[in-house]
């Protein structure tokens, strides 16, 4: 009799896990408490995989394995019930890892994950590596394992995915930074959040490499509490000077110029990516040749348009305070800042100095702006709106020649938009009409 495997959540990762599980001989059932897209339903029907949506009523309660969407917390009733029945609860990352012999580069951190992941992939791919890209970046690792035979994978990994690993052991791991985010899932305790991030190294051996920021105080604090088995490689702000990045590696030092990314946060991202590429065996010469052709990530400090000498910048992916802090630090001219959305337990105190020095006025774009108003109402002129079009109009009226209109919300997007991409697309659309 086939082993039962339950997939909870029918998003990209869930469907990928279902297809891989089917190919490995499991009796698969997919259950989603929300609505399943028509495209995903078609895929499930094509492969004769039974499913339900809108509830978990039909989901088997005695599966051998459960592959859980990272968005589902352990506190929901069905997870408690499945755990009581001794089901193994895996993330899609853990499940897919069990079916590949490829080498893994895994990247986690509060901010910069996607940019760094894509840059590492770009450096390896341009250097001739047989490499795939997957994970929290929006590409199913399980589906890639099913359909391709790569020698290397570059994976963006969230803390939620790391919460449900058992054997996952990357060959090269990176922790870029740890700052307060998603604390509602970790009892509002940054130490629990950091523990989750550090799970990326818990199964690694001495043969692996662990790359981390020496400038990040939370990383340093948690490093001191752990026995680190892999070769630990730190990077810091001293690597970058006057447009040139100098990387010490294995007793040598390599300098890189013609760098593709701007902003202080990207200095760390590029340092981490280059160290990962060197650790994977890419030559410094191939790295330098590949760097200039890298295109940055949409919705991350993305220049949209200049109108009447006012620059409009889309940083919709800045869904937490730390990301907004780096965005505000990236401009020397006065900023009209569009902020707000779904608050995730944010502490805005770290932004006070940057707002005082760099921000001219604040447009609050959200259904509940009370925390933003309380944080900055004594410092700056603040205007509320629930319309992106009105936010752009208000910002344009507030900005003068040579200034910047910056969407960098410091909040999630789900109050007014589908996701941060939808929010960024609305910003771009409204700016393009100017």
TrEMBL record:
Domain of life of the organism in this record? Bacteria
Keywords noted in UniProt: ATP-binding, Cell cycle, Cell division, Cell shape, Cell wall biogenesis/degradation, Cytoplasm, Ligase, Nucleotide-binding, Peptidoglycan synthesis
What is an annotated GO biological process for this record, any one? cell division
User: Mind telling me which Pfam families this protein's record contains?
Assistant: Mur_ligase_C, Mur_ligase_M, MurD_N
Q: Where in the cell is it found?
A: Cytoplasm
Provide a Gene Ontology MF annotation, just one.
UDP-N-acetylmuramoylalanine-D-glutamate ligase activity
**Pathway, per record:** Cell wall biogenesis; peptidoglycan biosynthesis
SUPFAM superfamilies per the record? Answer: MurCD N-terminal domain (SSF51984), MurD-like peptide ligases, catalytic domain (SSF53623), MurD-like peptide ligases, peptide-binding domain (SSF53244)
- Domain named Mur ligase central: residues: 107-277
The protein's Enzyme Commission number: 6.3.2.9
Asked if the record carries the keyword Nucleotide-binding, the reply is yes
| Known catalytic reactions | UDP-N-acetyl-alpha-D-muramoyl-L-alanine + D-glutamate + ATP = UDP-N-acetyl-alpha-D-muramoyl-L-alanyl-D-glutamate + ADP + phosphate + H(+)
Gene Ontology CC, one term? cytoplasm
Segments forming domain Mur ligase C-terminal: 299-411
Q: Where is this region: Disordered?
A: 45-66
Question: What coarse category fits the chief subcellular location reported for this protein?
Answer: cytoplasm
Which PROSITE patterns does the entry link to? FOLYLPOLYGLU_SYNT_1
Q: Does the keyword Zinc-finger apply?
A: no
Tell me the PANTHER family matching this sequence. UDP-N-ACETYLMURAMOYLALANINE--D-GLUTAMATE LIGASE
- What is the protein's known function? Cell wall formation. Catalyzes the addition of glutamate to the nucleotide precursor UDP-N-acetylmuramoyl-L-alanine (UMA).
The protein's name? UDP-N-acetylmuramoylalanine--D-glutamate ligase
Supply the source organism for this entry: Flammeovirga yaeyamensis
Record gene name? murD
């Amino acid at each position: 009799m086939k082993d039962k495997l339950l997939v909870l959540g029918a998003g990209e990762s869930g469907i990928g896990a279902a297809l891989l599980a089917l190919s490995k001989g499991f009796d698969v059932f997919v259950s989603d408490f929300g609505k399943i897209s028509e495209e995903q339903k078609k895929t499930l029907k094509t492969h004769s995989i039974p499913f339900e949506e809108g509830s978990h009523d039909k989901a088997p309660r005695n599966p051998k394995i459960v592959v859980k969407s990272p968005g589902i917390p352990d506190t929901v009733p069905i997870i408690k019930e499945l755990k009581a029945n001794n089901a193994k609860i895996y993330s899609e990352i853990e499940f897919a890892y069990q079916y590949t012999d490829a080498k893994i580069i895994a990247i986690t951190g509060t901010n910069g994950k996607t940019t760094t992941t894509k840059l590492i992939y770009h450096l390896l791919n341009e250097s001739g590596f047989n490499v795939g890209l997957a994970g929290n970046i929006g590409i199913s690792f399980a589906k890639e394992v099913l359909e391709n035979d790569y020698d290397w994978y570059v994976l963006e990994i969230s803390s939620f995915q790391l919460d449900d690993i058992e054997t996952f052991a990357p060959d090269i791991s990176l922790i870029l930074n740890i700052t307060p985010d998603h604390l509602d899932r970790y009892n509002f305790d940054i130490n629990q959040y950091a523990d989750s991030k550090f799970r990326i190294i818990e199964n690694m051996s001495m043969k692996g490499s662990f790359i981390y920021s020496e400038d990040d105080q939370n990383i340093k604090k948690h490093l001191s509490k752990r026995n680190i088995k892999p070769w630990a490689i730190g990077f810091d702000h001293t690597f970058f000077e006057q447009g040139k990045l100098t990387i010490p590696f294995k007793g040598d030092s390599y300098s890189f110029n013609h760098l593709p990314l701007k902003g202080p946060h990207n200095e760390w991202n590029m340092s981490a990516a280059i160290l990962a590429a060197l650790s994977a065996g890419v030559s410094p010469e191939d790295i330098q040749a590949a760097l200039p052709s890298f295109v940055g990530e949409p919705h991350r400090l993305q220049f949209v348009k200049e109108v009447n000498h006012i620059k409009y910048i889309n940083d919709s992916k800045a869904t937490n305070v730390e990301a907004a802090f780096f965005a505000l630090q990236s401009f020397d001219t006065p900023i009209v800042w569009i902020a707000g959305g779904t608050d995730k337990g944010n502490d805005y105190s770290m932004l006070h100095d940057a707002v005082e020095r760099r921000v001219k006025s604040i447009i609050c774009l959200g259904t509940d702006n009370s925390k933003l108003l309380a944080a900055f109402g004594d410092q700056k002129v603040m205007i509320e709106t629930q319309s992106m079009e009105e936010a752009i109009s208000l910002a344009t009226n507030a900005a003068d020649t040579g200034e910047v209109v910056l969407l960098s919300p410091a909040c999630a997007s789900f109050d007014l938009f589908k996701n941060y991409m939808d929010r960024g697309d609305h910003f771009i659309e409204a700016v393009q009409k100017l």
